[in-house]
Amino acid sequence: MKHADVIVIGGGIIGAACAWRLAQCGKRITLIDDRRGGATAAGMGHLVCMDDDPAELRLSARSLALWRELLPQLPEACAWRNCGTLWLAGSEEEMEIAHVKQQRMAAAAVGSEKLTAAQIAAREPLVCQGLAGGLWVPGDGIVYAPAAARWFIESAGEAISHLYDSAERLSHSAVTLRSGRTLRAESIVVACGLGANDLLGEHWLRPKKGQLAITDRYGPRISHQLVELGYGASAHAGETSVAFNLQPRPTGQLLIGSSREFDNADPALDLPLLGKMLARARRFLPSLAELNIIRCWSGHRAASQDGNPLIGPHPQRPGVWLAIGHEGLGVTTALATAEIIAAQIRGAPLSIDTAPWQPGRLYPSEAIA
């Protein structure tokens, strides 16, 4: 194996994007991939602009702009669709949320349009009656994240050495693998999600369990990604919550979410919570009751303590860089994360202020071991 300039730990969408971007900058990369799939394999694969706070909006808006530049190069296996997002308002109070969301997005140069209930019904006739209206964000889309991650790795060619193994120990310039090998590089990027806690021996992240369901193949029924405007409040409400989020997949299936449950690392389905999630979905899309759900599964988002990812140099480990804690926005923000990491490693300037994502802001006071 050729000597690497950078070792990237984690073969999901974040690690693959970081490796690809660094390779584009002329770096030789060793990518360590434990093949577990993680959040990339379990998630929905949405490309959606989120504005729960200014830092999230800046990162997602920048990353979506980078995705749009790249999308013409992606093969059909990546299943990209520019379906846009319809945010659904169940009340006049939620229409006020839509108004604020539109203003925030406009400030970040993200286009959106408020719609009446009649306009929502014209776009999506199967959506429930009685809505107050909604917000259309045409620049959003979906992608099949595992295929996109593979494309990042394969398109870089020999610049990336893809090594199937797992990182067991980490020093400032060396990684010891489960196989017993030790690899060295000037820079090491930790992009292995929840595995970063054990690898670093530090409490950076909390697991945030989620559950999803997918229907049989029925052909086109829904044209847009659908999300309730109460989604943001639900996502940050307490330790356990559900909210309506649905994607039309290119296969003719409907992917249904979502639930959130902090600090539950058990992979088993929580059937009562799954039932609440599906009931919530049927409230917005009543015809779901007539469709056959063929699979349900769970996964774990890696959540930071303040909800924003950790992107940048480790505050106490020279040469170690973190790209973790993206929670449910890893696919959306992968390219902006990769841009930041690559620029910082190279000492190159950036047009975006990275202070909100610097790991030093949340350096754990206690180590795991």
**What is the H level of CATH, i.e. the homologous superfamily of the largest domain?**
D-Amino Acid Oxidase, subunit A, domain 2
What is the CATH topology assignment of the largest domain? D-Amino Acid Oxidase, Chain A, domain 2
Q: Give the count of structural domains.
A: 2
The share of residues in helices is 25-40%
Report the biggest beta sheet as strand number plus sense, adding barrel if it closes.
8 strands, mixed
CATH class of the largest domain: Alpha Beta
Mean pLDDT: 94
The total strand number stands at 19
| Distance between the amino and carboxyl termini | 32 Å
Radius of gyration: 20 Å
**Sequence of strands across the biggest β-sheet:** 5-6-4-14-15-16-13-17
CATH architecture of the largest domain: 2-Layer Sandwich
Instruction: Report the total helices.
Output: 10
Q: Which band does the percent of strand residues land in?
A: 25-35%
Low-confidence residue ranges: none
**SS class:** alpha/beta
Label the overall shape.
globular
Helices and strands, in order, run as EHEHEHEHEHEEHEEEEEHEEHEEHEEEH
Domain FAD dependent oxidoreductase: 5-343
GO molecular function: oxidoreductase activity
Protein name: D-amino acid oxidase
Keywords: Oxidoreductase
